[in-house]
TrEMBL record:
Assigned GO CC terms: plasma membrane
InterPro entries given in the database record: ECF_substrate-spec-like, UPF0397
Protein family membership: Belongs to the UPF0397 family.
One Pfam family here: ECF-ribofla_trS
Protein name as annotated: UPF0397 protein FYJ39_08905
TM annotation in the entry: 12-32, 44-66, 78-98, 118-141, 147-173
Localization, UniProt: Cell membrane
Source superkingdom: Bacteria
């Protein structure tokens, strides 16, 4: 059975809602300050990458977009859209790994870990070094030195968060799934 990257089933909708709720809570309460203004190591990106890898780019993008927007709105009264968009892009791009992973079939070996991490690091670099700073400058007229520093720190910290937390969750989850061909009919 081939995975359809942009298919949106009921379980994907449920996972998106659950993922967005978890992302929101982690984004608000489980973070580590970096010393750079408004820039934290966010554990939420590990959850976003995990869900994106299991349910695809649309679910991943929506989880991060909704979760970040809700978190900002609850905490600050309004979303900081340049970073909300970058969050959505980072998890959307990470979700492009979806058809290449077979976690649901109980597989998540060294090659899969490497492949997952190549995707999520690339996604974080695109989102935080490219999209977030440029949108900060265009939308909010923020100083380039500040936003590119924030972007680089975010790219690194979010890559570490997604890499460690996402890889661990995918490895543990794969162990709960039956491997393909592991169930044999008794004769």
């Amino acid at each position: 059975m081939t995975k359809k990257m942009f298919e949106f089933k009921t379980k994907t909708i449920v996972a998106t809602g659950l993922g967005a709720a978890l992302f929101t809570l982690l984004f608000m309460y489980v973070k580590i300050p970096t010393g750079i203004p408004s820039t934290d190591i966010q554990t939420a990106y590990g959850i976003g990458a995990f869900f994106a890898s299991l349910f695809g780019p649309v679910a991943g993008g929506l989880i991060a977009l909704i979760g970040h927007a809700l978190s900002d709105s609850i905490q600050y009264g309004a979303a900081w859209w340049s970073w909300v968009i970058a969050s959505g892009v980072s998890c959307f791009v990470t979700g492009l790994i979806y058809p290449k992973l077979h976690v649901e079939e109980g597989e998540f070996g060294k090659k899969d870990i490497l492949r997952f991490n190549l995707y999520q690091v690339a996604a974080n670099m695109i989102a935080w070094i490219g999209i977030a700073p440029v949108l900060d400058i265009v939308i909010y007229a923020e100083p380039p030195e500040l936003v590119f520093t924030q972007g680089i720190v975010s790219a690194i910290s979010n890559s570490i968060s997604a890499g460690v937390i996402g890889s661990l969750l995918l490895a543990v989850y794969s162990k709960t799934r039956s491997k393909k061909g592991s169930l044999k009919k008794e004769g």
